[in-house]
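A quick aside before the break. I want you to see a complete sequence-to-structure record at least once, exactly as it would be stored in a machine-readable document. Don't worry about memorizing anything.
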Amino acid sequence: MRKITYWLIVSFITLITAWLISKPNLLGKLGLIIYKMHFLRTFPRALATVAAVVVVVAILVELISSIRSPLLRNGLLLFMLMACVALEVKTHYDFQSWAISHTGKKLRVGAYLLPLLLMFMVSSPWWIGTKKKS
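That is the input. The structure line, written in C-alpha cells, reads:
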C-alpha cells in the first residue's frame, strides 16, 4: 500500500467517524448537553475533534518511526498499539452502562471506530514503506 492510499483511507474513515459521532439519538443529544460535550454536538465540531486526535497520533507515529533503533521504535509502537487496544476495551465497557448504551447506534459505532482507526495508524509503519530503495 502506498502512502497516498493510506492517507486517503485515514481521511475517509476520519470523516465517517466524525459524522457518526455527531449523530446521536435524542437521549444521546440530551447526554451531550448534560455532560457539556460541546465539541461533539455538530458535525464540524466533531470533525475538528476527531481530526485533532488523528493528527496528534499521526505526528507521534511519524516521530517514533524516525527512531533509528529498531528495538526502541518497535517497542514504542507496540506500547501505542496496546494503548489503543486498551482504549477500545474502555469504550466497550463505557457503552455497557445504561445511560451511555442508549445513545444510539451511530454514536456507538463512531466511538468504536475511532480506536480502530488509531490502531490502523499505529500499526502502519510495520506494513507501509518497508521496502528500501538500493
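Two observations worth writing down. The chain has a mean pLDDT of 88. The two ends are 19 Å apart (CA to CA). We'll return to this after the break.
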